UniProtKB/TrEMBL annotation:
SMART domains: AAA. PROSITE patterns: ABC_TRANSPORTER_1 (PS00211), ABC_TRANSPORTER_2 (PS50893). This is Export ABC transporter ATP-binding protein. It comes from Cytobacillus kochii. The keyword Transmembrane does not apply.
């Protein structure tokens, strides 16, 4: 076990921000911590890393529940904060080198790790560039390199892609997956569900200081998805035998609407093949669209709000 939160309660004055959080983070996972603005994600990270004292509950890091925040544990953690924490007047290399020094890296090893970390985030060509001249996305990537320079076992990333260009965003997501393949455990917080869908081995959804669900993306979606809607566009709708489709088990409804055939069936009924075989015979399939639920639908089903609106709570 890399980290564990047990019964964590955190209040700011009378405001309850973390409401009895239990969370285990196993080695090798990318945990996607998803929640709307104000859900408590950053507070959870601050409690997990010892930056904020908790009102109640226990934190365990690397199996150490007695002194979880002692240096030998903290040096195994890399933290990418929401605010970019680099020195604008220093070059990329000088920035990474500074952080390598804080972590006690020396000599050849230090040089090697600085070069590796910068290359890892795609800044190998820009090592001599000053951070202040970098785009927002490059600054974010440099920020990540500085958190990685000591090769942490556990990397915590607090909304690392806010306000950046799609290319840098992609680069960061790919880098996170690569880190996982190399054995790093990652806690990745975001309010962008597409990011979690793309990289997380497990998703934890936080809302109003409570974990409302946890599981793989597929499991969470399967739990809420009660039906599948398959739309097939054909050139000869009159040739389609609606009765044959309706006769398939789990098919709830078949509707012909102009050139479109809509088939509603129980979730994951696995009928796409058979439906297409029936339709294809004489009707000429032009297009197929299977409507799938996503994590936004999971959040909506569980809370009655959208992720975007959820923050106003
Ligand atoms: N130091 C603080 N003092 C008082 N209230 C705070 C403090 N830090 C956070 N809060 C409040 O706690 C709640 C959770 O904030 P937090 O920053 O943890 O949420 P978040 O999920 O990370 O949101 P965001 O995506 O906007 O960063 C918010 O209502 C916030 O106003």
């Amino acid at each position: 076990m890399i980290a564990s939160l047990n019964g964590i309660v955190k209040r700011y004055d009378s405001k309850l921000v973390l409401d009895y959080i239990d969370l285990d983070i196993n080695e090798g996972q990318i945990i996607g911590l998803l929640g709307p603005n104000g859900a408590g994600k950053s507070t959870l990270i601050r409690c997990l890393t010892g930056m904020e004292p908790v009102n109640q509950g226990n934190v365990t890091l690397f199996g150490d529940g007695k002194k979880p925040f002692q240096n030998k544990n903290k040096e195994k953690i890399g933290l990418v904060t929401q605010e970019i924490s680099i020195f604008p007047e220093l070059t990329a290399q000088e920035n990474a080198n500074f952080f390598a020094g804080i972590y006690g890296l020396k000599g050849e090893m230090r040089k090697r790790r600085v070069a590796e970390a910068l290359a890892f985030v795609g800044l190998a060509e820009h090592t001599k560039g000053r951070a202040q001249n970098f785009s927002g996305g490059m600054q974010r990537r440099l920020n990540i390199a500085c958190s990685l320079v000591h090769d942490p076992k556990f990397l915590i990333m607090d909304e690392p892609t806010v306000g950046i260009d799609p290319q840098s965003r992609n680069h960061i997501l790919q880098a996170v997956k690569k880190l996982q393949r190399n054995g790093t455990t990652i806690l990745y917080t975001t309010h962008y569900m597409e990011e979690v869908e793309a990289i997380a081995s497990e998703v934890v959804i936080l809302d109003k200081g409570q974990i409302i669900t946890r599981g793989t993306v597929q499991d969470l979606i399967r739990n809420i998805q009660h039906e599948e809607r398959i739309k097939v566009e054909v050139s000869h709708p009159e040739e389609v035998s609606l009765e044959s489709i309706q006769a398939l088990p789990d098919v709830k409804q078949v509707i012909k609407d102009g050139n479109q055939i809509l088939v509603v069936s129980s979730a994951n009924s696995g009928h796409l093949d058979r439906i297409l075989t029936i339709i294809k015979e004489d009707s000429g399939v032009v297009g197929i669209n299977v409507e799938k639920a996503n994590l936004e639908d999971v959040f909506l089903t569980l809370t009655g709000r959208t992720l975007r609106d959820g923050g106003s709570a």
